């Protein structure tokens, strides 16, 4: 048996644009997520320089309905309570608060919706963990300003953040500024709202936009401390250890370079308050010249985060010679690791990598860590009696949670764990319902059919027992899956 702190925050995670629905209700404006088509061609379409941020009849847009949390939030929160959640990670849709993103005054209907959701969570004794921007930039900011290319978005984000902090002070303690902020390096459309044009310097545009986000994150942290010093502000990054394919020093160097830029570039700015030396070398070697205002360095240095949150789905393996078969997952590529199996979507499964990256991050930053995304996207089968026997999900989560506890035994301070997609939702990478992560099944299919009825999978009862025993059930030979 291993010890997990009594105040550990067990829960689940979602994003407004993937499950909320109500895309045109309550005064909400369109976001970039609302114009991203569903289907496996999604990533190809949004990375085309011709992507125009418009809705087209030949495509489907499952985000518009999601799983209708907008109208069913009480039902869903009751299920989270039944599972025993201590916390629930949600995001606020920026375009529900500022429909265009650049208004001076917020949309009261949007704020009132989140009043109801947050109050319901509190009534059910579930701690809200709120992401301010989760891949859902208001579409107007992408069209009129070119997304985070434009410095003016720093002001718009600070205004938006201040509205949220003032509205929910005393109710929301834990905040994340940008979801997977380092994802901008791999997928600038989702993270920055930037459709890269063929003729522009893609790296210059990406890192300039990322600089603007880092400054905006620090200014939001400043605002939170002015409004309510008890608030805790965290960064949120994709985290993955990067393994060298072999002991060839060339492979080791490539792996080191990739891991630094992926895991530590944004982390160093968020936690240490400055760009690391390896990033400065990267800028020089790639002709990147960041345009910075005189106060930027001081802002980044003074307003660093309180904790470091991360998503973990897979590790990466790298080698100098890229002719080896490649794999993909969570918007990043690497060479195939011969020691690992992969999910139905090709994401390599590596529970031990979670322990490794937690130790690396804690060794570097000495800040509390929070695993706010981890889970298995898989096809689920509904049996004739309505049961969903998702033992593959239980096996995946059990192995990862045991690795997390091992890291805690190593001395790593972990605040909590929120499994990604605790209720089935629309996949960000493919726009599919069929790529399911949840403990709760939602009857909604890729063709748009379905009743939206909720039902409990076997993993629901398993996670319920894990939480009830504060992790001790992870070390039983068997765990009941029905009650």
TrEMBL record:
Record gene name: bglH
Species the sequence originates in: Exiguobacterium oxidotolerans
Family: Belongs to the glycosyl hydrolase 1 family.
Family matches, as Gene3D superfamilies: Glycosidases
Hydrolase among keywords: yes
Name used for this protein in its record: Aryl-phospho-beta-d-glucosidase
Class of the enzyme per the UniProt entry, highest EC level: hydrolase
GO biological process: carbohydrate catabolic process
Keywords carried by this UniProt record: Glycosidase, Hydrolase
Pfam families (alphabetical): Glyco_hydro_1
EC identifiers of the protein: 3.2.1.86
Gene Ontology cellular component annotations, sorted alphabetically: cytosol
UniProt xrefs under PANTHER family: 6-PHOSPHO-BETA-GLUCOSIDASE ASCB-RELATED, GLYCOSYL HYDROLASE
């Amino acid at each position: 048996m291993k010890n997990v702190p009594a105040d550990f925050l067990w829960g689940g995670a979602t994003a407004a644009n993937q499950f909320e629905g109500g895309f045109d209700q309550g005064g909400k404006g369109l976001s970039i997520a609302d114009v991203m088509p569903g289907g496996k061609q999604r990533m190809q379409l949004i990375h085309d320089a011709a992507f125009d941020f418009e809705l087209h009849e030949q495509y489907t847009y499952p985000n518009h309905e999601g799983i209708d949390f907008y109208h069913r939030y009480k039902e869903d929160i009751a299920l989270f309570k039944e599972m025993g959640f201590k916390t629930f990670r949600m995001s606020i849709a920026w375009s529900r608060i500022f429909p265009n993103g650049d208004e001076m005054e917020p949309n009261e209907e949007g704020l009132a919706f989140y009043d109801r959701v947050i109050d319901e969570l509190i009534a059910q004794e579930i701690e809200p963990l709120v992401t301010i921007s989760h891949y859902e930039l208001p579409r107007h900011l992408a069209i009129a300003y070119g997304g985070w290319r434009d410095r003016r978005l720093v002001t718009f984000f600070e205004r938006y953040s201040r509205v949220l902090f003032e509205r929910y002070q005393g109710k929301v303690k834990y905040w994340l500024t940008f979801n997977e902020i380092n994802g901008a390096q791999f997928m600038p459309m989702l993270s920055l709202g930037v459709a890269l044009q063929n003729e522009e310097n893609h790296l210059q545009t990406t890192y300039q936009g990322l600089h603007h986000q880092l400054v905006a994150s620090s200014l939001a942290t400043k605002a939170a401390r002015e409004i309510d010093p008890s608030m805790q502000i965290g960064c949120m990054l994709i985290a993955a250890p990067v393994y060298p394919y072999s002991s060839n020093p060339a492979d080791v160097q490539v792996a080191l370079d990739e891991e630094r830029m992926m895991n530590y570039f944004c982390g160093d700015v968020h936690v240490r308050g400055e760009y690391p030396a390896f990033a400065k070398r990267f800028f020089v070697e790639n002709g990147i010249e960041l345009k910075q205002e005189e106060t930027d360095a001081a802002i980044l240095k003074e307003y660093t985060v309180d904790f470091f949150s991360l998503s973990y789905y897979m590790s990466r393996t790298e080698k100098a010679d890229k002719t080896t078969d490649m794999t993909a997952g969570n918007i990043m590529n690497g060479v195939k690791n011969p020691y690992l199996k992969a999910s139905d979507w090709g994401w390599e499964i590596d529970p031990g990598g979670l322990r490794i990256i937690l130790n690396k991050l804690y060794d570097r930053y000495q800040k509390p860590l929070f695993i706010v995304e981890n889970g298995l996207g898989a096809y689920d089968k509904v049996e004739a009696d309505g049961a969903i026997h998702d033992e593959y999900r239980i096996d995946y989560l059990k192995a990862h949670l045991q690795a997390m506890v091992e890291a805690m035994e190593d001395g790593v301070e972990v605040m909590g764990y929120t499994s990604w997609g605790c209720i089935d939702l629309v996949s960000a990478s493919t726009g599919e319902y069929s790529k399911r992560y949840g403990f709760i099944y939602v009857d909604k299919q890729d063709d748009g059919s379905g009743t939206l009825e909720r039902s409990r999978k076997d993993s629901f009862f398993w996670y319920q027992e894990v939480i009830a025993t504060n992790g001790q059930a992870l070390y039983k030979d068997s765990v009941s899956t029905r009650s």
